[in-house]
C-alpha cells in the first residue's frame, strides 16, 4: 500500500539522464528551469576544490564528495556576484537541484554530470542586494533522495573569495522512509516535512537520513537491501546508485568527525508494517529500539522524538476515517514508555550498529525519548493518491513538529520570513463572490 521505492540502477559506464515530469493533480506542472551550464574556459575564476574548508556540507556526503539520502546540500559565504559549481562525473546526469541566495526563494536547475554551472550571476534574484544576510550566502540542495551530485570545485570571480560560514548552534536529524524523504511532494526532498522542519525552525542544521521503501528492520524491503537499523550507520543510502558505487562496502558514517544532533526525529515503520515485507511486530519493535539505542550510543546527549505511524484515510459512509487505526500505535507508545521507565534508565543500553551493550554510567540516565502523536494532524485530503502527504500535508506535519519542539525543548522558531516551501503560495485576491 505504501512506499514503493523508485530504485533506478545506474551503470557507471552508461550515462543515462535522470528526468521525470513533475505533475500537479495529474497535470504537467510548468517548470522552465534555467539552463545554467557554462564553458568554464570562457570565464576568469578563482577556484576552490571540493575539500576547501570554506565549503560546508549538509547531510551525508562521502569521501568523494558525492551526496546521499534526502536534501543533502552545500553552503558557503561569498563575495562578488559570481558563483559557479563544477560537478564530477559521479553526478546523476540531469538531477534537479534547488539553490538560493540568503533567505530568498529556491531556484531550480538540472545538473549535467561533468559540467560547470553558473548559479549566481548579476542577473540572479538577490545577487545585487547587500544585506541583511551577511556575508552573502549561497546554499544548494539536491531534491531527490535516489539521485546525487558530486562536487568537484566551486568558483567565484577572479579577485573574489569564499567565506566559511559557522554552523548554526543547533542541529536536527530526521531518520525515516519515503514519508520523510519527500516522495510525491512537488520538489521531493525540498518539499518534505523533514526539510520543512529543519528550515522552518531556522538557525538549525539539519540532515535527513530517509529513503523510500526502507524498513526499520534489517531486511530487504521493496528492493532496499538493508533496514535503517543497519543503514543509518553508513554514509550512503540503500539506492541502486550506492550499490553500484560501493557494492557491499559502503563507507561507515564517521560520527566522530561530524557534530552530534541535538534532536533526532524518527518516523519509520510504515514499510515494516506492509504485509508484503513480512516484518513481525517483535522484529519491528526490536529494530526501532536498536535505532534509538544506536542514536543514544553515538550521540549520548541527543533527545529522540518518535512519531506515531499514520496510514492514510478512506471514505466510510458519509465521512473519512483513518486506515488501519492500530498501525502499531500501541506498541510504539509502549516502547516509548519502556524507554522512560526507571528499570531502563537505571540500566540503559547502547547499540553501535553491530552489538548492544549496557552503558553503565553508575547513575540513572535522564529520559531522552519522546512521543509525537501524529493522530489528528493530517486529514483525508492531506494524503495524495499514492499514500504520501501532499505539499500541504507535509507543511502541516512540519508545523506541528516545530511547535512540539518549541514547547518540549524550549527552542525558539528563528525562521521569520525566508521562504520554506517553493511554489506553495496559493492565493485569492478577489472578494465578494
Ligand atoms: C529537470 O528535472 C525535472 C525533474 O526531473 C524534469 O521534470 C525536467 O524535465 C528537467 N529539465 C530538463 C531540461 O532536463
Ligand atoms: C571521472 O572523473 C575523474 C576525475 O576527473 C576522471 O579521472 C575519470 O576518468 C572520469 N571518469 C569517467 C568515466 O569519465
Ligand atoms: C514470513 O515470516 C515468517 C516468520 O519469520 C515465515 O515463517 C514465513 O515463511 C515468511 N513468509 C514470507 C512470504 O516470506
Ligand atoms: C493520540 O491522539 C489521539 C487523537 O487526539 C488520541 O485519541 C490518542 O489517545 C493519543 N495517543 C496517545 C498515546 O496519547
UniProtKB/TrEMBL annotation:
Residues 1-20 form the signal peptide. InterPro entries: CtCE2-like_dom, PCW_deacetylase/CE, SGNH_hydro, SGNH_hydro_sf. One of its GO terms (molecular function) is carboxylic ester hydrolase activity. Residues 174-317 form the SGNH hydrolase-type esterase domain. Pfam families: Lipase_GDSL_2 (PF13472). The keyword Iron does not apply. The keyword Signal applies. Keywords: Signal. It comes from the Eukaryota. This is Lipase. The lineage of its organism: Eukaryota, Fungi, Dikarya, Ascomycota, Pezizomycotina.
